[in-house]
Amino acid sequence: MFSKACEYGIRAVIYIAQKSLNEERASLKDITAEIDSPEAFTAKVLQQLARAKIINSVKGPNGGFEIKKEDIDSIKLSEIVNALDGDSIYKGCGLGLKVCNANEPCPVHDKFTTIRSELRKMLENTSLFELATSLETGLTYLKR
May I ask the CATH architecture of the domain 4-136? Predict the structure, then answer.
């Protein structure tokens, strides 16, 4: 559903938010170890997220990645997805056909319209704070 970059990006941002809530910065090495991702690829994803102003990159010996505590609750999952994948998740054919629309639908067109609508709602209504704090309970995980 999401690109690999988006999957790693979401997991990284959740981890960074969790660290930021504890007033800590996350290093690239810590992030990649925690989310089980390749370092060079993850670094590029984090650059995109920093350019989109979702995370902050701090240079220097005490540097790393962080998110302002006061911003964590206002960042929605949809912002992360949009920064990395754009709005392609809401468009395109569920079967990958070049032409698929209301006038020329594929066999799953109508079902995908409903699913995409629900997905959009979930992404727009899920805050980073909600995801980061769910890790604290031990009921959710970033890797397995």
Answer: Orthogonal Bundle (1.10)
Angle at CA of residue 69, ends 63 and 73, nearest 5°: 135
pLDDT of amino acid 140? 81
Q: List, for residues 78-95, the tens digit of each pLDDT value.
A: 999 999 999 888 888 889
**Which residue's entry shows tokens 């769910």?**
134
- How is the chain split into domains, by residue range? 4-136
- Overall pTM surpassing 0.70 (yes/no): yes
CA dist 88 and 2 (Å) reads: 9
Distance separating alpha carbons of residues 71 and 68, to the nearest angstrom: 5
For residues 126 and 2, give the distance between their C-alpha atoms in angstroms, rounded to a whole number. Answer: 16
Q: Which residues contact 28 (CB under 8 A, 6 or more apart)?
A: 39, 42, 43, 46, 64, 65
Q: Is the dihedral of CA 35, 39, 41, 44 positive or negative?
A: positive
